[in-house]
């Protein structure tokens, strides 16, 4: 078909595999061959070969498909490697399956819409989607996307943020506004960019993304300088679990505020011209990182929040598209100094964090702009690392269940326990024989009313109440101390995360900071390494009945909780003997039936989801 050989050009589609984009221990040679196919096609898909031959090279990466190749895989596993066959079967079983017809249907889309050198994924019966394109290369071949555009970049004075700015200007952007708390570095960065790309190509504005007025002023200054705004990159971030409250303010609140301001200043519904918002997460937003559980949770939040905000509802209303980028380990000060800022109270966690980062492939910061930017709806890549629940009433995912002690004669503390799911938990604990339950919530009148009701149903001293604010350390700690003093022990802590109709900052404080505070207090008061007897921590995220586009924050909070809980539950924390469990999308009807089962049978780190 090659024009260099007298042909007319054409299209070559090579079938790789989803395992050409990730790893699976059960079939290392197969994985290597499929990575080879992806790399081969990406190389043949460069302009050099296309200009020579007129042939486009496309790659299809099917997920697990119902074929003999999959069903017989265990029989042909590598020999002499222990239980590698089971590892292979389990690994494939954890991925969503699909019929061959889904791949065939996607092939038509690939051939008709795929660009030369692009890589596409078909998995789980879902529509095919592009995961790698030639536009992600340094050549910046698709210049029209940024040509003459104005970009605002937080954390833009150094590292990845500066690399974003330089890349945009190189590809034809009319100007960039850098926002950062580092004044000296920011002014120098703007000066260097102007010297290299021209006068007024870059400006700097001191900005602390945790301060609402300063952050909005950055947007106002951008409009004043350039009279337009097309791209917002929320790049400012912290990897400092030691300062976890500030870390949440920057990584969570900063991204939410930056996204909302992006819609405010670019949205067509606000007389803007539309645009693009890029939220910078991390590779740790897609995988577990027990060396930095709070950071891990914040980046999972960014991925899910951005995913929800990329819903067509927002796009049609505002003309603003939302994207997410998840850089791997990049040579920046944030990585270099990470060991110093590990979460305190957990032994050599700093070294574990440092070693964990060292195990990941590193890249220079000037490659930051080359990272693949996915439309947030394509963050389903993250989901493939987790098994989908089966069609049983409830399914425990991630870890197998283990029979442990029951609830009888145990003492529990339930936050958010005056109504809804929290109150249902209180009743189920007492019905299952708990010695006592401390109800902790914000409404004192409702709390004492429920204590009276519980006393009538279950007897005196079975329930007590204490008023708290989930985000207030002093009040929350007092709830733990009061429970231990009143009932002479504490075995189970249940945090009921409620979705209330209030401003988003309160939601973050109560549902994210509150979870971190409660987890720290659980480990402090129940951990064997601190003189306790161990116990169970169960975090419950209630379901929200509205459509996904109406509750992006709630969805993101759930992802924070899952990622944070799983990081805390890793082997490093076994010294505490505190088992960490999570329930997502809990409903009033399902929680009562399953609470005792989850508490007694759930293994450390497991996540339960009704389906």
From TrEMBL:
Q: Entry's PROSITE patterns?
A: ADH_SHORT
Q: Which InterPro entries match?
A: NAD(P)-bd_dom_sf (IPR036291), Sc_DH/Rdtase_CS (IPR020904), SDR_fam (IPR002347)
Sorted alphabetically, the Gene Ontology cellular component annotations on this record are:
cytoplasm
What this protein is called in its record is Uncharacterized protein
A Pfam match is adh_short
Family, according to the entry, reads as follows: Belongs to the short-chain dehydrogenases/reductases (SDR) family.
Say which domain of life the source belongs to.
Eukaryota
User: Which terms in the Gene Ontology molecular function aspect does this entry carry?
Assistant: oxidoreductase activity, acting on the CH-OH group of donors, NAD or NADP as acceptor
Name the keywords, alphabetized.
Oxidoreductase
């Amino acid at each position: 078909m090659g024009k260099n050989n007298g042909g007319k050009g054409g299209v070559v589609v090579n079938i790789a595999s989803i395992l050409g984009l990730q790893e699976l221990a059960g079939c290392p040679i197969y994985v290597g061959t499929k990575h080879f196919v992806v790399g081969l096609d990406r190389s043949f898909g460069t302009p050099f070969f296309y200009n020579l031959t007129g042939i486009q090279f496309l790659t299809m990466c099917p997920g697990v498909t119902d074929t003999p190749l999959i069903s017989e895989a265990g029989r042909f596993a590598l020999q002499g490697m222990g239980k590698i066959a089971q590892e292979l079967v389990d690994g494939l079983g954890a991925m969503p399956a699909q019929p061959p017809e889904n791949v065939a249907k996607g092939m038509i889309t690939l051939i008709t819409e795929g660009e030369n050198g692009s890589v596409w994924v078909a998995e789980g019966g879902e529509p095919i989607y592009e995961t790698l394109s030639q536009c992600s290369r340094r050549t910046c071949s698709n210049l029209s996307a940024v040509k003459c555009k104005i970009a605002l970049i937080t954390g833009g004075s150094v590292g990845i943020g500066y690399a974003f700015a330089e890349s945009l200007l190189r590809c034809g952007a009319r100007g960039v506004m850098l926002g950062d708390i580092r004044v000296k570095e920011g002014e120098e960065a703007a000066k260097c960019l102007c010297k290299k790309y021209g006068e007024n190509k870059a400006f700097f504005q001191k900005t602390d993304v945790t301060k609402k007025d300063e952050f909005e002023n950055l947007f106002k200054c951008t409009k004043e300088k350039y009279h337009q705004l097309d791209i917002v990159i929320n790049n400012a971030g912290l990897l400092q679990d030691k300062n976890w409250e500030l870390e949440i303010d920057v990584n969570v609140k900063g991204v939410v505020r930056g996204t909302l301001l992006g819609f405010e200043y670019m949205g067509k519904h606000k007389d803007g011209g539309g645009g693009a918002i890029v939220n910078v997460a991390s590779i740790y937003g897609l995988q577990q990182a027990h060396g930095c559980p709070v950071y891990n949770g914040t980046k999972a939040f960014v991925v899910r929040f951005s995913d929800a905000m990329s819903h067509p509802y927002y796009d049609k209303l505002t003309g603003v598209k939302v994207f997410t980028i998840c850089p791997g380990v990049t040579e920046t000060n944030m990585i270099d100094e990470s060991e110093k800022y590990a979460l305190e109270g957990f032994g050599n966690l700093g070294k574990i964090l440092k070693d964990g980062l060292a195990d990941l492939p590193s890249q220079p910061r000037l490659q930051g702009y080359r990272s693949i930017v996915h439309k947030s709806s394509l963050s389903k890549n993250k989901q493939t690392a987790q098994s989908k629940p089966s069609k049983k009433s409830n399914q425990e995912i991630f870890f197998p269940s283990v029979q442990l002690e029951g609830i009888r004669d145990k003492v529990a503390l339930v936050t958010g326990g005056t109504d809804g799911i929290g109150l249902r938990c209180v009743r189920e604990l007492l019905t299952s024989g708990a010695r006592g339950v401390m109800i902790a919530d914000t409404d004192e009148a409702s709390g004492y009313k429920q204590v009276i009701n519980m006393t009538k149903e279950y007897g005196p001293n079975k329930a007590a109440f204490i008023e708290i604010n989930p985000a207030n350390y002093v009040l929350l700690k007092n709830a733990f101390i009061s429970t231990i003093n009143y009932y002479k022990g504490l075995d189970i802590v249940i945090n009921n995360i409620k979705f209330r109709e209030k401003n988003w900052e309160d939601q973050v404080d109560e549902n994210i900071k509150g979870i971190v505070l409660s987890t720290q207090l659980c480990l402090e008061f129940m951990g064997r390494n601190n003189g306790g007897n161990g116990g169970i921590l169960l975090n419950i995220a209630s379901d929200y009945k509205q459509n996904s586009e109406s509750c992006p924050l709630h969805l993101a909070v759930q992802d924070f909780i899952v990622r944070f809980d799983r990081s805390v539950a890793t082997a490093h924390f076994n010294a505490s003997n505190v088992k960490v469990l999570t329930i997502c999308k809990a409903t009033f009807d399902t929680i009562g039936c399953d609470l005792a089962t989850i508490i007694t049978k759930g293994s450390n780190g497991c996540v339960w989801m009704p389906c």
